[in-house]
Amino acid sequence: MLNDRIVNLGKLGSALTKTEEYLSKLDASTPYSSFEHKYIFHCLLLHFEVGVLLLGKWCGTKLWSSLMLWKKQENLRVRDLCA
Predict the structure, then answer these.
(1) pTM score, two decimals?
(2) What are the extents of the domains in the chain?
(3) pLDDT tens across 48-70, in order?
């Protein structure tokens, strides 16, 4: 998930938080297809790679997209605690 614009774990964590804030405005059962275009645009503005953008499509709904982002954020927090 790191790339030439998200160059460290701090920036990654910030981008994940901003994406979760965006998703939190949607109802949990909102199908991915109804927010896909805005979600992709939002993620591109945060410099995510294409594979991350497809995360929501694999998840199917806003709820599952949020859970996957939460899991990635938790992985970063655990890494920080272990360092």
Answers:
(1) 0.68
(2) 9-82
(3) 776 665 666 666 777 777 777 77
